[in-house]
Structures are given as structure tokens and as C-alpha cells.
Design a protein that fits this description.
Layout: E1 41-46, H1 53-69, E2 75-80, H2 85-97, E3 102-105, H3 114-122, E4 127-130, E5 140-144, H4 146-161, E6 169-174, H5 180-193, E7 198-204, H6 210-224, E8 229-234, H7 237-249, H8 267-275, E9 281-283, H9 286-301, H10 305-310, E10 314-316, E11 324-329, E12 332-334, H11 340-344, H12 351-354, H13 360-365
Parallel strand pairs: 1-2, 1-3, 3-4, 4-5, 5-11, 6-7, 6-8
Antiparallel strand pairs: 9-12, 10-11
Helix pairs in contact: 1-9, 4-5, 6-7
């Protein structure tokens, strides 16, 4: 996977085609015979609802961008599988039967969905893997550089510890073993943590379930002792919240709270960062990724091959296919110091969303007004 420098990416819901990577397209690209006009249907399959970003950001941004690109004539067929692969298979098969023009797929189980991806391919329906790299004959992939996400988490955690050494005991709360992103997050994190700290306990969390993360953290606390835990690598914000609850239940609070990582810049996590309970999250500019996915889907259906290729400047490999065209969006470590220049500047949240009465004092202390 091509490495991408860490960067803050300014993004907007009204991202133009050029901003999505269409700069390489020319009028000559229009010579391709379009397979569909504005009246097209994009099937959008999301994996679960525990992570609030899918419902709050990805879906509405993709819906808005498809409408913009099709003069409000294109439509979205949306379904969320609520973390059940069997449900997602049924949802996808229904979209195939209904002859949607293209499918954007964020897989619950990237391996198990491969046969259904082939069904879509056999039916002449392109499938673009979104966020998670599904197996099977997908046409393209749009996501963030997942290994880099883990590197950012691991590096920031080491920096938070200061003069870290192998006596610093770390708990790793990894994501779901059926999500290929989880393995990449872990790999990236380990590249920064290994040899610098001692990883005393490590858990893979089924379906990214915060309840399981909390139970696993309680096990780690019971085994290690709360005072021995120097930091916690949590792969996402929902689990970070559960980890912090487990630490609080063990009597840890205030300045004794160890640094805890996260990912997705969920609002409760941003508030925990403001208050000092959570050390960091990874901000992934959803407007850029979602708008790029919508542009890729519309361009693919229209047969604009050269434009489509210019939207996919990277390549990735899955266990079943090599050299998959991809668009990998950069990410940034979100801490107290850059809330204003990231999630607020990009329009994800307003100061009033973050700085509710409970967090007003903490916001004032870091100049967030």
C-alpha cells in the first residue's frame, strides 16, 4: 500500500469533481460511451450502527454528492446491516435483483461477502469497496490509509508517555477480527509500539462491540492492576469510551487516567479529549472520502473510464485480487491542540456542539470558544 504523509485535509460537502481527484480528466475522456445518464441508482451498504459516523456523515454526504452530480435525478438505495453479515448478504442480493447501477459496499465481513460481490459482477453491477476492503472482484476501493491510522495512534501514544520504555505496560483493544481494517490498524500501531513499550494484554473485539471492550478491559485491570497500566491503545472511539468506563469503575480518574487512543472523531470522544479523559482520536475527513466515493460511483456507471481512473491514484491488494485501483485519503491525529483546525474548520461540529454546559469550563481552558 502506498504510504501517504500525515496531513490535515480541508474538506466540504460541496467538493468538486476536481477536488475528488478529477484533475487528470480531460474532454477526451468524454468520448467513452456512457452506460447511464443522470437517472441512476447507487446501492449503498453500511456495516453497523455502533459507530455513529455511518449514519451521521458517510450516508448523508454520499447522498448529497450523488444528487449534486446527477442534477438531483440520481438516487441512493441505502441499507445498514447492523453488524450482521447474513443481513448484509440479503440486502446486497436484493439490490442485485433490483438492478441498481452500482454498489458502494462497506462490508461487515470482508471475506464472507466475496461470493455476493461475484454475483453482482456476474449481473453486470460494479462494486466499489468503501472504507473496508471487501474480497472478491471489486472494481475499486476508497478508504483511508488504514496502516497509517494505526501508526498515528501508536506514535501519538508513545509521545504521550514521554520517556517511554519497556517497563510501560500497554493494553491493546483492537477491532473486529472480521474487519480487514482492524488488522491494518493493529499492524500500523505495532510498528510504533513494538520495542518501545511492553504490550501486556491484547484483545480482538468482536463486531467492535463496546460492551465486549469494557469486559476485556476489566479483565486486563484485574490481571495487571489499574496502577500498572501506562496507556491503552483503543482502535476506535466507541471502544475508547468503554475502556475509560472500565478504568473509572476501577477507581481511576483525573490525572491518574492513562492516555487512551481512539479513531473516528466521534462527538463524545472529542468532548472526552477536551476534558482530558481521552488523549487522542484519529480524524478522518469523511466529506472527502464520501464525496470521492460518490464521484467514483457516478463516473463508473457513466462509462467515463479515464475520469474513473483519475479518481484512483493508488493501488491495493486483497487476499483474492491484486492491483485494485484505490483512492486512499490521508488522516490526522486529533488532540486538544487542533480541534479548531480540524473538526470545527471542516464543519463536522460547531463549538456549541462540543462545548455544552458540562464541558464549558474545559473548553475555555484550551481556548475553544
Amino acid at each position: 500500500m502506498r504510504r501517504i504523509a500525515i496531513a490535515v485535509v480541508a474538506s466540504t460537502l460541496s467538493l468538486s469533481l476536481a477536488g475528488c481527484g478529477m484533475l487528470g480528466a480531460t474532454e477526451a475522456a468524454g468520448e467513452a460511451t456512457p452506460t447511464k445518464g443522470d437517472d441512476l441508482t447507487v446501492g449503498l451498504l453500511m456495516p453497523e450502527e455502533t459507530n455513529t459516523r455511518y449514519e451521521q456523515f458517510d450516508y448523508p454526504i454520499i447522498k448529497s454528492k450523488v444528487a449534486e452530480l446527477t442534477n438531483n435525478k440520481g438516487s441512493i438505495r441505502y441499507a445498514n446491516a447492523n453488524a450482521k453479515n447474513s443481513t448484509q448478504v440479503t440486502q446486497m442480493e436484493r439490490m442485485i435483483d433490483d438492478k441498481v447501477d452500482v454498489i458502494l459496499l462497506d462490508a461487515v465481513d470482508s471475506k464472507a461477502i466475496a461470493g455476493t460481490v461475484k454475483k453482482a459482477k456476474d449481473a453486470g453491477i460494479p462494486v466499489i469497496a468503501y472504507d473496508r476492503l471487501a474480497q472478491g472482484p471489486i472494481d475499486a476501493y476508497v478508504s483511508f490509509d488504514n496502516e497509517l491510522v494505526g501508526e498515528v495512534q501508536g506514535r501519538t501514544l508513545v509521545e504521550a508517555l514521554g520517556a517511554a520504555d519497556l517497563s510501560d505496560q500497554i493494553v491493546m483493544m483492537n477491532g473486529s477480527p472480521t474487519d480487514p481494517n482492524s488488522a491494518q490498524f493493529k499492524q500500523g500501531a505495532l510498528s510504533e509500539l513494538s520495542g518501545r513499550v511492553k504490550i501486556s494484554e491484547s484483545f480482538d473485539t468482536k463486531d467492535w462491540d463496546p460492551k465486549e471492550a469494557k469486559a476485556n478491559m476489566a479483565k486486563a485491570i484485574s490481571k495487571m492492576g489499574a496502577s500498572k497500566i501506562a496507556a491503552v491503545y483503543s482502535a476506535n472511539d466507541a471502544m475508547a469510551g468503554a475502556v475509560i468506563k472500565a478504568l473509572k469503575a476501577a477507581g481511576v480518574s483525573g490525572d491518574d487516567m492513562p492516555p487512551v487512543t481512539g479513531q473516528d472523531a466521534e462527538l463524545p470522544a472529542v468532548q472526552r479529549i477536551v476534558s482530558g479523559e481521552q488523549y487522542m482520536s484519529v480524524y478522518k475527513p469523511y466529506p472527502q472520502m464520501a464525496a470521492a466515493a460518490a464521484a467514483m460511483a457516478v463516473a463508473k456507471v457513466r462509462g467515463r473510464d479515464l475520469q474513473f481512473e483519475s479518481l484512483t491514484r493508488d493501488t491495493v491488494d486483497s487476499p483474492t485480487d491484486k492491483g485494485i485501483r484505490a483512492n486512499l485519503v490521508p488522516v490526522v491525529a486529533l488532540t486538544k491542540s487542533n480541534i479548531k483546525s480540524t473538526v470545527i474548520e471542516d464543519g463536522i461540529y460547531k463549538v456549541s456542539d462540543i462545548c455544552t454546559s458540562e464541558y464549558k469550563s474545559a473548553c475555555n481552558s484550551i481556548g475553544l470558544k
